[in-house]
Amino acid sequence: MPPSRRSSKQSSSEKSTSPGTKKSNDAQSQWIMMVEDCVLDDDGGNEESRPVMCKLRHPKSDSGCLFLFANGGQDVYEAIQYKEEFRSWFIGDTVQHDGGMLMLTTVDPLFLVMPYLLKEGQSGKFMTLDQIVIDEDYPECNRLHGCTGLSELHQITEVKGDDDFRAYRFDKDKTLSWLKLKTEIVADVLQQKDVSVSSSGAHSSIFIRSKKEDAVDKDQYIKYACGMVSDYLPPLIAEDLRDYLGVADIHDPIKSPSEEPPAKRVKLEDIAPSEDYSKTHGVQKQTSKETKMTVAQKKLSKVDKSGMKSISSFFSPKVKT
User: Fold this and answer.
1) Distance between CA 39 and CA 43 in Å, rounded?
2) Burial environment of residue 138 by CB neighbours within 10 A (0 to 12, 13 to 18, 19 or more)
3) Are 179 and 241 in contact (CB under 8 A)?
């Protein structure tokens, strides 16, 4: 993705920073962002076509996140921040202590309006878009009305009316069918780019794989793609999508067949011998083979030992008289 003119200008200023730089104010008034040039086009300075950054409710976390509306509000992008702990930016003669970087990625506006459709769909009534997409905490959500992607609302809703007046109602079956298509498209792209999604680690594309292995890889790509799509879905819809696709929970690790089960923790007081080894008088030891004696041992066995004391008797305590 080519950087914008603003980004290249800031990166060049980093090289020309003088040693005596000044620390920027605590109130951060600027950010480093990587965007495409077309996002910053303002159509000859028209105020309405300028990019607008605002907070919207994220469909998965239900919390506020930064989004950018561009091209006159027709396209919407999510602002994702990449940040390291020890990182700063040198901009001109100042040091910006926050070394984070914002990157924009396009978002289908249907994902952003889905939580509102799901909420209002519980009433079972058909409602207009301006009645559905309304939020007191994030009033900028009304900008979603102008996104071109909402022309596909019929993919996830039932529609009544004509071009002049349309009412919508959330349709779960149509939504899951649409999400399945989205997941398969993502999985195909991942497989075409040979992105490693296997839990066993990276694999080489040089190997000749059998049809059975290709089927397993396809399932892995579907599961991975389902996780990516679920990052923009309400939890209830994400769970329904997993059931609809027949994949396991995204966060459950895939267990290898050769993986041994974890050892069971046992208390010491619960450990007891299976046999009573103190009672050995009735136990006869059986040896499969007689041990072979050396020549010296054979000669020693023939010696008359009567009257001889055992060597251990010299170390026993003396009996007091």
Assistant:
1) 11
2) middle
3) yes
In degrees and rounded to multiples of 5, residue 170 shows phi and psi of -65, 135
Q: Are 32 and 102 in contact (CB under 8 A)?
A: yes
Rg of the chain over CA atoms, in angstroms?
37
**Higher pLDDT, residue 123 or 318:** 123
- Binned at pLDDT 50, 70 and 90, residue 127 comes out as very high
Tell me the three state secondary structure of residue 287: coil
Instruction: Tokens 């900008």: give the residue.
Output: 143
The first and second tokens of residue 116, run together, are 């509102």
Select from 234, 232, 228, 231 the least CA-distant residue to 116: 234
Question: Which pLDDT belongs to residue 29?
Answer: 65
Structure tokens given for 242? 């997993």
Three-class SS state of 268: helix
Model confidence, pTM: 0.64
The more confidently predicted of residues 196 and 153 is: 153
Q: What are phi and psi of 95, to 5 degrees?
A: -115, 120
Q: How far apart are the first and last CA of the chain?
A: 103
How many angstroms separate the CA atoms of 81 and 99, rounded? 10
pLDDT for 18 beyond 60 = no
Q: What is the mean pLDDT of residues 217-223?
A: 88
